[in-house]
Amino acid sequence: MASTKIAVYSLSDLKNTTDDALPNYLTSLKFKQSHFLTDVRLALGYSAVLIAAVTFAADYKLGWDATKYWTFWAVLVYFTLNGALTFWIWGVEKGKVFTGEVKSPVAGWNILSIASHVTKHVPVYNLTVRYSNSKGEETKLQLSSPFTRWFDVDGFFVAKPFQQWLASEVPLVRQMSSQGKRLGIADGETKATAVVVEPKYDTPKRSRDGESATPSTRTRKSKKAADR
To answer: Which of 2, 5, 4 is nearest to 155 (CA)?
Structure first.
């Protein structure tokens, strides 16, 4: 799936694109995502919109005198729902971009929660990772990396560097990812192994005794001189 080009100077676009890529990667590793937080947010939002729509329709058809009593309670419920929605977003979700669970071959079932945030005018992606296993052991990680690590200069998202970074920093993700072996990440390591591509040049090789090898081709003139 081709990525969409974004404005590299838009911090919100950088964050939103990365937030969307994170669940896609985790679900590909057999993480089961929970949509409970999103479902509650949508339910609160749509309920408030529905109440406003019904109140407007009733007032339009029946008039103010016939609906003013019900309008009072509708407005009260509307603001209550909006207050609950605001609390849910800032007090419960707290920037979470993924919640779910996975069965690890090492520690059984694990519950994972990942929240993201950025600082204004600072192009760095920050993650707060929490996960706990069936034994009650809980792990909390604070991660950060510049967006330039997985966005190219044209504004296209490159998935592999982002997946490498996440797998190298989060042990649970590393356990579930067969990519860990391909990246050269051993258990206990927290940094991704850099892949160095050496440039290919046609340089002369050294002989075993330390002397420089002669060029592979000679001109006819030099060859005749050598024969003499």
So the answer is: 5
Give the pTM.
0.73
Q: Report in angstroms the alpha-carbon separations of 223 from 200, 204, 228.
A: 29, 19, 9
The three-state secondary structure class of 184 is coil
- In the chain, the amino acid numbered 92 is V
Crossing angle of helices 36-62/64-87, nearest 10°? Answer: 170
Q: Is residue 160 helix, strand or coil?
A: helix
Q: How far is residue 23's CA from residue 210's CA, in Å, rounded to a whole number?
A: 55
Q: Using CA atoms, how far apart are residues 142 and 144, in angstroms rounded to an integer?
A: 7
Residue 192 has pLDDT above 50, yes or no: no
For 69-82, how does the pLDDT look when each residue is reduced to its tens digit (9 = 90+)? 999 999 999 999 99
Q: For residues 99-137, b (16+ Cβ closer than 10 Å) or e, as one string?
A: bbebebeebeebebbbbbebeeeebebbbbbebbbeeee
Name the more confident of 189 and 21: 21
